[in-house]
Design brief:
The protein is an alpha+beta fold. It has one domain: Double-stranded beta-helix, CATH 3.60.130. It is built from 8 helices and 16 strands. Strands 1, 2, 3, 4, 6, 14 and 16 form a 7-stranded mixed beta sheet that branches. Strand 10 and strand 11 form a beta hairpin. Bound molecules: fe (ii) ion.
Length: 321
């Protein structure tokens, strides 16, 4: 079982909603995350907590969807030109940070991305529609988050000037009337298929330092990282993958391996993909590097004021932040 799905009961939702702490900025929310986690442990039912812990501790479980999570507001307009006041989103941010705290993770932001803000509003924005970032409405191909950074939980050591990629990505659905799902493929399923189709040489080739990984479009002032592997073995002995369409091989073998992996992705994605169509009050947690994700293009519906809006927060082990 790789995909856990759970609906918060009405009582849990009510108890979690009543845990409001009056906080008006992201930094303070991070300070209160542990306290929020303790409160949520008392507010959530055992079944919910058990599924959350299972997601955190079982290496084969990469995806956890929780429905009926508390949001702070009623019908706000999707922020298509600028971010909204933190007070509007504080309840959900604290809820998400509290869940992270329960599983020993901490929310964080990168200095080089999203103006160093904790919460990224994944919305189509005027002026960014054709960009390959979460602010566009253009097709976003299969990728892991921030492949240019070191993969956490592996032998890769982060350089001083380069952080680790996030371990977990949280997405809360605010609106998704366009019905555009988040598509996820598990690394293990992809590699098993690729190995069966092309042979074990491919797995070896993906572990060599012969790939050029550029920074993603959402990063600013990040140097190109050269000569890193796509595949690293985690401390527990499982594969972790970095991937984006922009990565290129720097040797004949690397180019051949990348081409083989991309062929498997193209040919098998319909069978391998897990479709998560987040709607209002849905929270998706998924692991980076043991999954890839993507989103198709869509027509941003600005006229309604409620175009697709997800709130994203990254989390990792506090030691890696
Ligand atoms: Fe992404």
């Amino acid at each position: 079982m790789t995909y856990a799905y759970h609906i918060l009961s009405r009582n849990e939702h009510h108890r979690a909603s009543s845990l409001d702490i009056d906080i008006n900025d992201e930094f303070k929310a991070l300070l209160y995350a542990e306290l929020m986690g303790e409160s949520l442990q008392k507010s959530l039912d055992n079944a919910t907590l058990a599924k959350l812990q299972c997601f955190a501790s079982d290496h084969a479980q990469n995806i956890f969807v929780l429905r009926n999570v508390p949001l702070s507001f009623g019908l706000l307009e999707t922020p298509s030109t600028e971010d909204i006041a933190f007070s509007h989103i504080s309840r959900n941010v604290l809820f998400t940070l509290g869940l992270f705290s329960i599983i020993g993770k901490q929310g964080f932001a990168y200095e080089q991305e999203n103006n160093a803000r904790l919460v990224r509003h994944v919305t189509p924005k005027h002026g960014s529609l054709l960009k390959g970032t979460s602010h566009g409405s253009y097709h976003l191909g299969w990728h892991s988050e921030h492949p240019v950074f070191s993969i956490p939980g592996t032998e890769e050591v982060s350089r001083n000037d380069s952080p680790y990629a996030p371990e977990i990505i949280a997405l809360t659905g605010v609106y998704n009337y366009e019905d555009i799902p988040t598509l996820i493929i598990e690394t293990k399923a992809l590699l098993d298929k690729a190995q069966a189709e092309h042979g074990s040489w491919l797995i070896n080739a993906l572990q060599k330092n012969h790939y050029d990984v550029p920074p993603g479009a959402s990063l600013s002032n990040v140097e190109v990282r050269r000569s890193c592997p796509l595949l690293s073995i985690s401390n527990e002995g499982h594969f972790k993958l970095r991937y984006s369409d922009a990565i290129v091989g720097t040797s004949d073998q690397a180019r051949k391996a990348l081409s083989a992996l991309r062929q498997t992705l193209r040919e098998e994605e319909d069978k391998l993909k897990i479709v998560v169509n987040l709607q209002h009050c849905d929270l998706l947690l998924f692991k980076n590097n043991t999954t890839l994700h993507k989103r198709s293009d869509f027509d941003a519906n600005f006229a309604t004021g409620m175009s697709r809006w997800l709130m994203r927060i990254f989390a990792s082990n506090p030691k890696l932040i």
